[in-house]
């Protein structure tokens, strides 16, 4: 089954090992194959990973895009260990991410990691109000 993606002018998309930038008008792409695909809104650059949970997201993103995701497991599991130690209430989100990773569904793990970032933001905002 083909994936249909529409990208805006100037928008970037990662397909496999390539970054594609739309330099013209809105474009529609039809993609066949099993290459990992990330739209610009889902791409996190290393300099944007400025919180522990964003670093977890970046590690999951790296696994998703890698030809050998397991090569990044040590980094990922170290990061989530630090997050869980600092904020034990993240256990449900981390379990959801782990389940997706351990079953090989890295894109779904990436989406779960977005919920972890949102939860982290809530925790930080709550701490600042206290």
Task: Describe the structure in brief.
This protein is of the alpha+beta class and 130 residues long. 49% of the residues lie in helices and 16% in strands.
Number of strands: 5
- State the distance separating the first and last CA atoms: 50 Å
Strand content: 15-25%
Main sheet? 3 strands, antiparallel
* Broad structural category: alpha+beta
* Helix content percent band: 40-55%
Number of helices: 4
Q: Which spans of ≥5 residues are poorly predicted at pLDDT below 50? A: none
Radius of gyration: 16 Å
- What integer is the average pLDDT? 93
Question: What is the N-to-C order of secondary-structure elements (H for helix, E for strand)?
Answer: EEEEEHHHH
Count structural domains. Answer: 2
Spatial strand order of the main sheet? 3-2-5
Shape: globular
Layout: helices, strands, pairs:
Elements: E1 3-7, E2 12-15, E3 18-21, E4 27-31, E5 37-39, H1 52-65, H2 73-86, H3 91-102, H4 106-129
Antiparallel strand pairs: 1-4, 2-3, 2-5
Helix pairs in contact: 1-2, 1-4, 3-4
Describe the structure.
The protein is of the alpha+beta class and 130 residues long. It folds into two domains: 39 residues, no CATH class; 86 residues. The chain has four helices and five strands; from the N terminus they run βββββαααα. A three-stranded antiparallel beta sheet has the order 3-2-5, with no helix packed on it. A two-stranded antiparallel sheet has the order 1-4. Strand 2 and strand 3 form a beta hairpin. The radius of gyration is 16 Å and the shape is globular.
